[in-house]
């Protein structure tokens, strides 16, 4: 914790950008009621810089999309997001938990794009 990560890849560069940023935006599809493996892996790699990330009190936004409209799909990720926000000392600016994107044309019928637009303008 709070040292160099043992993996040798480009993640330290990404973490440098996060430390310089005012806000971090997380966007992910939902797989089995949680983050995608790619974003989960990136978040896990924050561990080497937790103290610095926590002390910045970065603003954060979370956007997640799910295939179906079932409310239970978002309950797990919402809980995970809330815990992550608290642990990393992030300033939650909002979240969009978009359900029902599992068919062609869903993005033209749903109101989430407008919600995302207004969230973006607000932050």
Major sheet summary line: 3 strands, parallel
- Count of helical regions: 6
Radius of gyration: 15 Å
Range of helix content: 40-55%
The CATH superfamily is identified as: Flavodoxin domain
Helix/strand/pairing class, anyone?
alpha/beta
Mean pLDDT: 88
For the record, the CATH architecture stands as 3-Layer(aba) Sandwich
Shape: globular
According to CATH, what is the class?
Answer: Alpha Beta
Gap from first CA to last CA? 30 Å
How many domains would you count in the coordinates?
1
Estimated share of beta-strand residues: 15-25%
Unreliable stretches (pLDDT < 50, length at least 5) are none
The total count of strands amounts to 3
**How are strands sequenced across the largest beta sheet?**
1-2-3
CATH topology: Rossmann fold
SSE ordering: HEHHEHEHH
Helix and strand arrangement:
Layout: H1 11-20, E1 23-29, H2 37-44, H3 50-56, E2 59-65, H4 72-87, E3 91-98, H5 106-109, H6 112-122
Parallel strand pairs: 1-2, 2-3
């Amino acid at each position: 914790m709070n040292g160099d990560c043992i993996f040798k890849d480009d993640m330290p560069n990404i973490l440098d950008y996060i430390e310089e940023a005012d806000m971090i935006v997380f966007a992910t599809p939902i797989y089995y009621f949680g983050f995608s493996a790619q974003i989960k892996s990136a978040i896990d790699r924050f561990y080497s810089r937790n103290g610095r990330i926590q002390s910045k009190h970065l603003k954060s936004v979370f956007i997640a999309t799910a295939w179906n409209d079932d409310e239970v799909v978002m309950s797990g990720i919402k809980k995970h997001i809330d815990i992550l926000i608290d642990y990393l000392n992030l300033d939650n600016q909002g979240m969009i938990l978009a359900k029902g994107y599992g068919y062609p044309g869903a993005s033209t019928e749903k109101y989430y794009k407008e919600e995302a637009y207004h969230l973006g303008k607000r932050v």
